[in-house]
Each structure stands twice: as C-alpha cells, then as structure tokens.
Amino acid sequence: MDQVMAVTGNVFWVGVNDRETQRFENLWPLDHGISYNAFLVRAEKNVLIDSVKALTQEDHFRRIAELLGPGNKIDYLVINHMEPDHSGAIPWLRTHYPEMRIVGNVKTLDFLERFYGIRENIVKVADNDVLDAGGARLRFILTPMVHWPETMMTYLEEQKILFSGDAFGSFGALNGVLFADQQDDRDQYLNEMLRYFSNVIGRYSDMLQKALVKIKTLAIDCIASTHGPVWRRDLDQLIALHDKWSRHETEPGVVIAYASMYGHTLQLMEAIVASLGRCGVGRVMVHDVVNVHPSYIVRDIWKYRGLILGTPTYNMRPFPLIEDLVSLLDNKRMKNRLLGVFGSYGWSGGGVKQLVDFAAAGAERWQLVEPVVEAHCAAGAEDFARAAELAANMAGRLGKQD
Ligand SMILES: Cc1cc2nc3c(=O)[nH]c(=O)nc-3n(C[C@H](O)[C@H](O)[C@H](O)COP(=O)(O)O)c2cc1C
Ligand SMILES: [Fe+2]
Ligand SMILES: [Fe+2]
Questions:
Q1: Are residues 206 and 267 in the same domain?
Q2: What pTM was estimated for this model as a whole?
Q3: Ligand 1 pocket, residues with Cβ under 6 angstroms
Q4: 16: CA distance to ligand 3 center in Å?
Q5: How many CB atoms lie within 10 A of CB 261?
Q6: Best probe residue, ligand 1, of 261, 288, 353 (max atoms within 8 Å of C-beta)
Q7: CATH of the domain at 260
Q8: Peptide linkage before 371 cis (omega within 30 of 0)
Q9: Has residue 368 been placed in a domain?
Q10: Looking at ligand 1, which atom is closest to the CA of residue 345?
C-alpha cells in the first residue's frame, strides 16, 4: 500500500506516476516520467477533480478505493481538461462508480460525448459557477485554450486551493513527495517546468495571460496542477515565472542551434561562440540539432533573448532538422527575440536565404541581427570577420528588451 498523499485534511492526491510513456504527446521526451494528478475532495459529497490517462487507471482506482473505503461512492467528477492524459480513465471510472455525475462546461461536455459517447449524469457549469459539495465549495473558472478550448480551473474556496489544470505543470513523476518545496534539486526541477511550459503550453501564452488576470482576484494558498508537484509555498515565484514566460520576457543569453555535415558550418559556429565569449556573453547554449531533441532547444530559446541558427544548404533548402526546428518555433508563436543566421553552401545556396526569409516573415516577432554570414564552401577570412561582427552585434543588443 502506498502512503496516502494528502494536500490538506480532506484533499488527497489520487493521481498516478507514468514511467512507461517515453514521449509526452508522443513528442516530448520524458526523462524522469510524468504524473497525471487527480485529487479527491472528501466533504459531504466526494468530489474527484480530474482523472488520468487510460491504462494507468489501476493505481488511480486503488488510491481512490483506499480512501473511500468499502461502499462509498464518488458523487462528482470535475473535469478541468478533456485531453486524454486526464480523461482516458473516465469510461472505466463510470463502470465502477455508475452514480458519479460528471461536471464540465459546455465544451467539456461536447468532447465527453465525442470521445467517450457519454451524455448522461452530467452537470453543466458556466464561468464562476459554484458547486456546493457540503463543506466544500468549488468555483469554476473558465480558462479556454490553456491548453484546449474547454480548459477550466477549479477553486476550492475553504482551503483556497486552485486546481489549475495543465497550467503551472511540469514534466517529471512525483518521487515520493507531493510538494514542490520538498524537492531539493530546484534548478533541475525549474528546468523541467520550463521545458513543459515551452513545449506544451507556450503557444497559448496569450490565453495564459488572460487566465492569470482572472485568478489574480482569488486568494490562493495552494496550486495543484495536473502534472508535477503541488505548490503550497513560493506561489508568488511560481506565478511570476509563468507571467514572465507567457509575456515572452527573456534573459540575456544566446542559443546557437546548428547542423553541419562536413564541418564548414561548424567552423563558423565555433568562430561565433568564441566572439560571443570575447564580447562578454556568459550564457551561450550550443545545440547540434542532430543530437539534441528540439524539446530542449525550444526550452532554451524560450529563456534567452538571442538565437543564432546555422545551416548548410541541403537540396536548395536548410538542413532538414533545422527546417523542422524553424517550423516548430513558428508553431510556438515565439516573439521578442533576436535572430542571427549563418551557414555554408556549395552550389547556388538557398538554406541561409530561407532562414532570412523566416525572420522577415515574422519580423514583428524575430528581429534579424546583421550581418547574415554565409560561406561558399569553406569559410575564409571575410566570413570569419562577418561571424565576429554578427556575434558583436548580438552581444550589443542582448541587454535590451525590444
Ligand atoms: C546531400 C547534400 C546536398 C546539398 N545540396 C546543396 C544545394 O542544394 N545547394 C548548395 O548550394 N549546396 C548544396 N550542398 C553543398 C553543401 O551545402 C556544402 O558542401 C556546405 O559547405 C556543407 O556545409 P557543412 O560542411 O557544414 O555540412 C549539398 C551537400 C550535400 C552533402
Ligand atoms: Fe493538456
Ligand atoms: Fe495534461
């Protein structure tokens, strides 16, 4: 039997740790697993907040059954988010708790029918509605597109707990402790939180900003997301970080993401790195896109103001993995960043030009830092001089938030 993890006297974690899934959304590597958090509020009525991914329900069910004891039932299931990592176990829960009433907004209920064919025993709620579970008042705050159209948060008024859905989440399973303040390796944890944010939520930053405005009016003692640990201390820090990330506020530093087949683009990359160092830039992250999953590169790009992309020309285009990265950045709607471009070509080029076009197409989001550096085959003295100039210009602009 596991230790029951209590958030407070009558609120318990009944989620699961998933250490089997290799990639979240079948895309983002899970180096340390992930948790799907669900919570049981025990009042006059038993309320389950969120559920878990299909095939992980055994642990979920065991925890719920242990807390409820024989003969007890779940009265309500509140669904903050219909993505199957939180809703997959619902059909299964319904067979075990047939009286359970499912609580969601109009969009949740539409998804519920389309995914699982469920139409009965439901309670439709609107923004700011309250469900009184007898000693537990649950207020629903609609926060669309954080991270799906139906997403909402649930606020438990008595204990001032915000069940925030995917917002404020993190990759990483819960390793025996429930609260963020019990994690000793803070840096590693914050890195994973940013990787989760930038990969999963970041595209919806504007919607998160709206949600942050909405929850500002609440007195919050605890934030319980659907992924990662629960926060009961340093809530100001947690909210400030998400505010900063979703406003695209960056730190001085440069990410270099490059590819090279025969070392010529690589040589230019080394020249740029050396020049950045000479210009006093202390935070330079170099990622070879062939060896590093884009998930980590996107995380670093989200954090730092400067990005320098390097590519050889490959069949008249950028190297395929550089093209993939650029398309991912476009998908993430990143903005307020500086972009430098360099590379090497052999015949008539095209790779670097397309990166310049990318910067021009998103000119309000990416400010191109000159000069563009492109060597014809091996870099010569002139190319190296331009590489140094690019580094110096980048360094000079890092301090300013445009
Ligand atoms: C498979 C392949 C396709 C290429 N396609 C082009 C091309 O379409 N246009 C061009 O100008 N150069 C092309 N090149 C030449 C490279 O861009 C050139 O050799 C460059 O210096 C390679 O840089 P690297 O040493 O950093 O890999 C190609 C090279 C390879 C190996
Ligand atoms: Fe989600
Ligand atoms: Fe999720």
A1: no
A2: 0.95
A3: 260-266, 312-316, 344-350, 377
A4: 12
A5: 12
A6: 261
A7: 3.40.50.360
A8: yes
A9: yes
A10: 17
What is residue 229's DSSP assignment? P
Average pLDDT over residues 143-152: 97
Mean pLDDT of 375-399: 97
Question: Ligand 1: which atom is nearest the Cα of residue 265?
Answer: 26
Q: For residue 88, what are the CA distances in angstroms to 112, 117, 133, 357? A: 10, 13, 25, 42
Nearest CA to ligand 1 atom 29: 314
For β-strands 366-368 and 337-345, DSSP reports them as parallel
Ligand 3 center from residue 58 Cα (angstroms): 19
d(CA 118, CA 95): 12
Residue 15 has pLDDT above 60, yes or no: yes
What average pLDDT does this structure show over 18-22?
Answer: 96
Co-location of 230 and 263 in the same domain: no
By the CB criterion, residues less than 5 angstroms from ion ligand 3 are: 85, 166, 226
Residue 187: predicted pLDDT: 87
- Measured from the CA of 261, which atom of ligand 1 is nearest? 27
In a domain, 81, yes or no: yes
- pLDDT above 90 for 135: yes
Q: What is the CATH number of the domain that holds 119?
A: 3.60.15.10
CA 320 – CA 346 distance, rounded (Å): 16
Minimum-distance ligand to the CA of 85?
Answer: 3
232 to each of 13, 138, 288, how far by Cα in Å?
A: 14, 18, 38
Q: Do residues 138 and 30 both lie within one domain? A: yes
In terms of Cα–Cα distance, which of 372, 369, 367 is closest to 386? 372
In the reported structure, the alpha carbon of residue 289 is separated from the centroid of ligand 1 by a whole-number distance in angstroms of 17
Q: What ligand has the least distance to the C-alpha of 379?
A: 1
Angle at 131 between CA 55 and CA 124, to 5 degrees: 65
Q: Which pLDDT band holds residue 402 (cuts at 50, 70, 90)? A: very low
Contact criterion met (CB below 8 Å) for 368 and 309: no
pLDDT (tens digit, 9 = 90+) per residue, 344-374? 999 999 999 999 999 999 988 999 999 999 9
Mean pLDDT for all residues in the chain: 96
Ligand 1 atom closest to residue 267's alpha carbon, by position in its atom list:
26
Question: Ligand 1 center to residue 318 CA distance, Å?
Answer: 9
Q: Whose CA is nearest to atom 28 of ligand 1?
A: 314
Q: Who contacts 134 (Cβ-Cβ below 8 Å, separation ≥6)?
A: 43, 44, 45
Positions of E strands within 157-229: 161-165, 222-225
Indicate whether 120 and 235 sit together in one domain.
yes
What whole-number distance in Å separates Cα of residue 38 and Cα of residue 200? Answer: 19
